[in-house]
Every structure is written in structure tokens, then in C-alpha cells.
Amino acid sequence: MNHSDNNRQIEPAQPVLSLTGISKVFPGVKALNQVSLELYPGEVTALVGENGAGKSTMVKVLTGIYQPDEGQISLDGNAVIFPTSNAAATAGITAIHQETVLFDELSVAENIFLGNAPKGRFGLISTNTMKRKARELLHRVNADIDPDTPLRELGIANKHLVAVARALSVDSKVVIMDEPTAALSLKEIEELYTLIGQLKQQGKAILFISHKFDEIFRIADRYTVYRDGQMVGGGSIHETTQDELVQMMVGRPVDQVFPARKGLLGKEVLRVTGYSHPTEFADISFTLHQGEILGFYGLVGAGRTELMQSLFGITKPSAGDIYIDGQQADINSPKQAIAKGIVYVPEDRGKQGTIQNTPIFQNVSLPSLANTLKRKLLNPKAEISLTRKYTERLELRAAAMDQHVNKLSGGNQQKVVISKWLATQPGIIILDEPTKGIDIGSKAAVHHFTAELAASGMAVILVSSEIPEIVGMSDRAIVMRDGRICLELNKQQMTPQALVQAAAGIGNAA
Amino acid sequence: MIQKIITSREMILATAIVILVCCIAYVFPGFIAPANLADAFNDTSPLIILALGQMIVILTRCIDLSVAANLALTGMIVAMINTQFPTLPVPILIVIAILAGTVMGAINGLLTWKLDIPPIVVTLGTMTIYRGLIFLLSEGQWINAHEMSDSFKAFPRHEILHLPVLSWIAIGVTLLFIVMVSRTPLGRSFYAVGGNPGAAVYAGIDVGRTQFMAFTLCGALAGLTGYLWVARYAVAYVDIAGGFELDVVAACVIGGISIAGGIGTVIGTVLGAIFLGVIKNALPVVGISPFAQLAISGAAIIIAVAFNAKSSRQKGRLILKPQELKG
Amino acid sequence: MSNQHTHATSLPDHLNPRWYRIISSWEFMLLIVAIAIFIVNSFASPYFLDPWNLSDATFNFTEKALIAFAMALLIISGEIDLSVASIIALVSTAIGYAAQFGVSVPMLVLIGLAVGILCGAFNGLLVTMMGLPSIVVTIGTMSLFRGISYIVLGDKAFTSYPAELAYFGQGYVWWVITFELTLFAAAAVVFYVLLHKTSFGRAVTIIGNNSTGALYSGINVSRIKFILFLLTGLMSAIAAICLTSRLGSTRPSIAFGWELEVVTIVVLGGVNILGGSGTIIGVVIASFILGMVTFGFGLLNVPGIVMSIFVGLLLISVIALPRIWMKFSGTSH
């Protein structure tokens, strides 16, 4: 602990790695727009931002997975490019990724040294050296794991420690940690902090990405804030406060952007009691009313999506009941959910929401195809007019009704998904991260429309990791952590602070 | 630890083989005479070699249905060279066989890698093309024992320590594969590519190139087996080893190679091949028509793949903390 | 780019006019190829244009095409069945076995259809209930089904069939129009309607594009895939009855290697091997093309195995050429 305090006295003159004017465009969305990032030796820089702010894209640029469309990367003052992940690794940049990018079928030692194994006689991998080095590395991260164990036998926390060991296996200048504590226990987190202290002492530059403010303030020396693909702030962590960071992340004053809502609630349409899943969530109970927007907030991996997919009939619960309009309902497949008036706009638009390589009108008519048939045969004219009816309400921008969905921007794809469900005239609509990865203009349109749906008497569940979206849109908000509901707030109690603290399990809310 | 070894599928398979052999031996004690077992192993050797090649292809999420056609075409090429130039020494013929097989494997690999054509389509196509080429080369003629030189035929049958060279080659390839798969970066990358192709990219592994290498190695082994097969049976014609690709895939699947890629061991594959070999050799002994063999390999494939799928069901993300799960 | 995107209020139904969609289609190109082959053949051999010869030539593809229709749907849905030729062997063996006991022709047909459907159900159950990959399952059943034929027949053959059975493979409906050709035409119409005009067919295409998305849109993916395997078994049985009737004998090696030709017809017909798109018209034209080429080669005395080289090359190049084209025109992603 003391070492790191000493280190703060030294003010390094030169960043080891600096990125300037980096932009990265994906079809339909500008993920990074002229952003910068500087990392200093022996210091931890926290990269802060909401989901979709561009943090993960930045990590991929840094590690050579993505190539930026414009901008410059310089390492030790020299301009460099990372055309492949190997190039970035060779240059001394290693990353511990958000999703563990490891291999279940290989042993722990092999995972640590894959692509970089110590060679012995005849150029063969020297198993003994590899194991010995792996043991040393695992010891450094205080992980009590046998290097011979197949990775698949480890739990998530241990897998994460293996990933940390892998990052340490190469002599790197820059270590990127993308939400490294998300799956760790308190004790393991403490050990990770100690390790970060050691890395700082060795003069490594660390990029630390986290949603947990307590840890940011505990271990970071500097911070950088991204919002909507742009850099909105940065500096020394000692010269800022948690409120200021939240303000920067969230940006615009909350109540100006979101549509005004009357918030008139009708009768109860959905009641969920004691709803549990063997591994993903437990003991979920809540109610939902006509005309209500119920926000679900939580960190990534809190179990919100898993809960919603179960309500939609994708996975089976292990216990608990669902009542729709007061009647107990059995939902075993999406087909049954749709028949009962529950529809789900998934987070993964490309895989779950749309059928990409297919005309718009076929996407929209899919669940209500039976209503468009003429003498039991397909009737494209009726499908198109059905599609037109709902896409017009949403102001879809496209070239033609038979344009393939993958040619549309993210926002317009989302409008196709919502149109598809509106055509089934549902009573309950679940929106899972509905504005993730779409541009600001389309975001506003989706917000506007969500409010309109509620006003027309539909019950809306809004799952979002964006605090302003939850605060600005919902009548009530539920916060989930580790698969359980940890807080429920009404409109008056709903502050960004309360949501953030409950989700991270800090402060008095925990 | 001990429990782990006992419940490993290699152990289960080995036990099954031992029980099978014991059952046969109980009725026909002659079956376990050392000479007979050595014969059975020798008969199974080509299957072992081809199955090892197929194993690495399947590990990388591909499949090679052209191995038997590759074998047959290579066999015809070396047999024809032998009849034209009987004095050419056998080692050179073996090199030619391996080269021819490598080229055919590389063609499969290139089409998969560079043009991104599904491997099943590529190899279904090259399977018929390679077979057809045998006909074009030989004009449909057979090459019989008397047309081949003695040294050509003698090599795989030559006995060292009571085992024919063919068996020794199978053992050698097995040992080589154990080393290659566990001790070389390429060997480990087969597992990485099949297990998690997305993550392989992060580890700096080129997925397409790795698949290409698997196809090429598989082709090389098929070529080598092509010479051994033709020399051992002393005959070459269009249809040799017809349908053998199914046995090869069966050996892999029985040996625990997951068709979804990334899972499987060399020992498992060899045991899978031996399991099929024992059945094949035992059928005539126990008086079952050899015609039943096709159905048995088919049933074995289906049972094995169902068994594999059952043992590797995907788990959830486990959001709830472990202590909560117990309670 | 953005100015061609317009508001839904003025969205046209289609991006391109109908004539453009037809001319730029794979099927249109196939049709031109088919016509070209027809013309070349008629110049190459004086026997080609004889109506009876042409009628004979249809036997080269009608049986395979019957299976290809069902296989097209299966491949569009993202699955495959490599056991079709072995189903033929098993069905033919079952019919031959039953015929020994003097079973009537309608019963023989029923037995054949039942065996085919059972085979399809077996494949379908393994794929949909147990979630096994169809490639491996059907490689397994490919050995299993034909293996049962071998157990029953060994190196023998069934050769005695009731005379009336001959009609299915040798009969003429009118003038040069064979029963098989009529069956082919009827099946083409039925499958055209099924794939392009019913919600079942729409679901098949959608599943092949994105089975997760289909599930999330309320489609019962497993049920539809199961039905497709049944259908493939049924069509293989129909083909088996025709083939048995035409050959008048059953050996376990009957229809050996047909799965390759059936898949080739389907892929040549423009069905995406990875699933998600394809048309019955394409399959029909592709059947004609392969049939005419086989017939043309036959007139020129080219042996069957050389023909199979051509089929293999065709299968690969049909998929490879568009990809090479994309690569060099720089439109790949």
C-alpha cells in the first residue's frame, strides 16, 4: 500500500502510450469519435463511461482487434500501428478482457502461455518450464490453482485470475483491465488491488475499466470519461468527485431530453412472485401496471436479461409464478408468451431481434403471419401493408419494404423489431437495452415512442444500463445485483446516485 | 484424481474394448492368441493413421470426407510409378505418396481457408473428383500383385520384433501425434481454434491457416496410408477403401472427438479405431456376416455422438454465487 | 447513401422493379445455361432431339430431383441429410422383402413410404430432440440404413416384383410423358407452393437465416425441422419406389453415392449451403441441367465415373465462383 503512495509523488513527464483523434465507425453508428487516451508508466488510468460509450471499442483498438478509421497511436513517442492482435502483444500491450477469452479444453498453464509458450529441446514446448512459470505467475496473483487443471473445471473467478496471470506472462508495458473485478469476491478483489500495486511499482501503465466508483477512487491515479463515443473529461482522480464523474458520464441534465410523461397507471397486468432459476436469478417478485414504464437497472451480468428471457419463455424457471391480468400463466415458449401478449425486444439485435438477411416486411410480419394469409397462402401485399402501418408510426427510414434488414442502421433495425411486436398488439412489452449501440437521434425516437406506448395503455419493462434512460423514462425502477432484486425505487426516490450505489453494492443502499 | 482417470472416456473406452475382447475370447479362445491380436492390430493400423489425421481436422471444426479417395488415388499413383519404374527405391515412393497426399489435403484446406467454402461441401466434392481421377489415370484397369515389384510389396509386411512395419508406422504416427498435439504451438492451436475461434484471434492465432494446416497434415497421412494400403493388399483399383472415410469419422466420434470442435485426445482416437478394428476382426470369428459391419459402424457413430453430446451440455453463466446454489 | 433512404410514409414496396429482380436472379442465369446446353447437345448429337430419347433422358434426374426438393428445404433450414441414398436402399430392400411374400402393389408402396418416413423420423428425432449436428447424425444413419440392407441381402439381390410395380418406373402417362416425369412436375408444384406460398415455407427460410431469431419471434424451430426430416424420408421413399420399379431389382448398393448428386442439384439450383435462401424453380432448372449433361455425356460414351468428376467440380465451383468474384471485385466484408 505504502509503495503506491510513494509512487504518486513522481510525476512522469511522458505518457508511455498515447492515442489521439481516434475514430471508429461501424455501419449505422460512430463508436468512437475523435477520442484521445493517455497512459502513464506506474499509474492507473480509469476509463469511465456508460455501456456503449466506446470503452470496449477502445480496448479492441488498443489490442489490435479493430483498426481505427482515423487517428494516431504512439508508443514511447513513436507512431505505431497494430494491424493484428499479435502486433499489439509484441509491442507490450496485454489485456484482460471483459468476457474471458480463454480455452476450456486447454490446461491452465497452456491458457497462460498459448501463442507464447517456452520452448525446449527440438523447438518443442517445454512442459516443465511452462508449468513452473505458470505456478510462479499464479502465485503472484495469489491463485491456488494447479497449472495442470483443465480450464473448464474452474469457476468464473478463477478463470479471471488465469486471465490476469496470462497478462502478466508477457513482459508488457501496458496492462488493460476491462472490468476485472466483475466476477471476483471481496477477498479476490483485495488481492487484485495488491497485484495492481505491484504492477505500478514495476512501472507498468494500467488502463482500468470499471463501473464501480469505490474501486476507481481507491486505485486509480487518473481518469478519462467517454460518452457516446466522445471524450468528455479527464485528469487526476484527486481533483474530482464521484458526483462529478457521474455527471460527466451521464452528460446532459436528465429531465430535458426525455419526453414528458403523465404517468397514469391502470390496472395490474403482470405479477411475478418468487420467480427463480437454477443458476441465473433467484426470488424475483414484482408487479407491472397498464401504462407503466418499469425500469430494470443493474451492472452487466446482474441477471436482468436472463430474467426477461425466462419471462418470454426462452428458459424455464425452477420456481415461482407469473400472473397475467390476475390469471396464472404457464409460459414455456416464446410462442406462448406472444399469445399471452408478452413480447420481448432483445438486447442482441443481430442474433435475436432481427432476421438479418431478410426483407424488412418479412421481419415485421413474422409473428403475425397468420393474420395476413389469403386462403391459407402467403400474401405479401397484406404483409407489406401491415408493415407500413407500424413502421410509419415509428418513422422508419429505409429504401424500400423489401430492403434487407442488415442494410439498415442500428436505430432503424430497432424500429423494425419494435414494429414486429406492435403488429401482434401486445399488452406487455419488454425492452432490453433498446438504445444500445444506436445513434443519439434514434435514441430520442425510441424514447419518445416508448413513452407513447405507455400512454396508449401498454405496460413497459425497460431494461437499461444507462442511468439517464432509467431515471428519465421509468415510473418505478428495480435494481438487480447478482441475480436478485436489491432495491426498488419510485419516481421521487430515483436518483442516479441511488441506482449506481445499489447496483455496485456500495454505500447505505447495500 | 483417481476418480478422474477412471471416469475419463478413454478409460471407459479401453474398458469396453477389454470386455469386448474377453467376451470374444471366452467363446473363441484363439482370438487372444498373440499372433491373432497382432494381426488384428495390423489390420487396424491404416484406420488409426487416418483417424489421427481426421482428428485434427475435426478439432478445428472441419471434416474431411475425401481421405479414402485421397488414399486410393495416392495408392494408384505410386502403384503405377512402381510398374513403370520397378527399380525406384521404396523410400522415394513413400515420399511421393506423402507429397501427393499433402497436395490433395492442401487443396481441401485452401478451398476452406481462402474461399470460405464449408468443409463438408469441399470434401464431398473432392472425394468424387479424386476417385474419378483414379479412373482417368488407370483407365479403369486394375494393378495386380504380379505387376508390382517385390520390394514395393514387402515393405509394410516386413517384421520387426514380430510386428509388421505397417503396425510400427501406426505406433510411430501415434507417438508423433501425442508430441505434436501436446508439445507444439500448432498442436495446441488446433484445440484453441476449435474450442473458441473468437478467442483464438485474441491469442494471435489465424483460424483459417490453422484449419489449412490440419487439412494438409490429414492429407499427408492419407497419402502415406495410400502406399501402405496398396502395397499390403498388393492391388490397386478405382474402388479401394470405398466408404472408408465413414469408418475414419466413426473412429474419431467413438474416440470422443467432438464434432463441434476443440475436444478430443490422441489416445481416445486410437482407442476408437481399435474398438472398430476389434469388431471388424471379431465378426467372422463369432460367425456374424461381415455384411453387418457397415450397420455396426453406423450405429456406433450415432451412439457415440449422442453420448458425447450428453457429456458436454452447456452450462449457464452462473450469475448466482456458488454458496447460494448449494442452498 | 442517406438520401436514398426515405421515410416510411413514402416507402416503395420494392427496391428494384420486377423485371430487374428476375434478370439479376441466379435462376435466370441457370435458365440461360440450360438453354445453351440444350442447343449444344442438339448440335453435338443427332439423336438428342428425338422425343423418345429426350423422354429417356428424364430418368437421369427425375428420381434424384424428387429428393432434391425435400433436401432443398432441409438445406434452406440450415440442416442436411446425407442418408437419403441409404434410405433408398433400405426402402427398396423392404419392398423387395415384402414382395417375396406376394404382397399387393398398394401395400408394397405403403410399406416403402412407411419405412422412408420412419428413417426420416429417426434422423429428425436425433437432430431436434437430442440437439445433435445433422451432418454427423446422417453420416451415421447413412451407414446404418444401408448396413441393414447389407445384413438382409448380403451379396444377393431381390429380383421378383409384381408386374404392376413396373408402372412407377417404366410407365407412360401419355405419349412420351413418363409417370416419373409427371410425378416430378407434381412434386415441383407442391414444393413450390410449400416453400414460397405458405407460412411453413416462410418459417423454413427464416430458420435457416437465423434460428435463434426465429425462436425469439415465436416459431417452433424443432417442430419444423422435424417435419423437414420426415419429408426428406418420404421423398426418398418415393424415389426408391420409382427406382426399384425401373431397375426391377434391389441390391444393397442401389443408388450408391446419390446423396452427392442430390446435394449438387440443390446447390447448383442456387440454394445457399449455409441455409437461409433458395428457390424451387432453381432446383427444377438445375435438375434439367444435370440430366441433360449426363445424357449428353452418355451419348458421347463418357463413362459414369468421369461424369462424377464433373459433378464434383460443378459442386465446388458453383459455390467457389461467386466467392472468388466477390473477392476480386472487393465487395467482400
The CATH topology label of chain C is: ABC transporter involved in vitamin B12 uptake, BtuC
Q: What is the structural class of chain C?
A: mainly alpha
Low-confidence stretches of chain C: 1-5
Low confidence ranges of chain B: 322-327
Assembly type: heterotrimer
Q: How would you characterize the overall build of this protein?
A:
The complex is a heterotrimer of chains A (510), B (327) and C (333). Chain A is of the alpha/beta class and 510 residues long. Chain A folds into four domains: 2-92 and 172-250, Rossmann fold (3-Layer(aba) Sandwich); 102-170, no CATH class; 252-341 and 426-510, P-loop containing nucleotide triphosphate hydrolases (Rossmann fold, 3-Layer(aba) Sandwich), CATH 3.40.50; 350-425, no CATH class. Chain A contains 19 helices and 21 strands. In chain A, the strands form four sheets. A six-stranded mixed β-sheet of chain A has the order 6-7-8-3-9-10, sandwiched between helices. The longest helix of chain A has 16 residues, at 186-201. Mean pLDDT of chain A is 86; it is low at 1-10. Chain B has 327 residues and is mostly helical. Helices cover 73% and strands 1% of the residues of chain B. In chain B, strand 1 and strand 2 (163-164) form a beta hairpin. The relative contact order of chain B is 0.18. Chain C has 333 residues and is mainly alpha-helical. Chain C contains 15 helices and three strands. Chain C has a two-stranded antiparallel ribbon with strand order 2-3. Chain C is globular and about 70 Å long. Classes of the chains: A alpha/beta (510), B mainly alpha (327), C mainly alpha (333). Chain A binds chain C through residues 312, 314, 333-335, 337-338, 344, 346, 351-358, 362, 366-367, 369-370, 373, 376-378, 384, 388, 391-392, 394-403, 420, and chain C through 4-9, 11-15, 193, 196-199, 201-202, 205-206, 209-210, 212-220, 276-277.
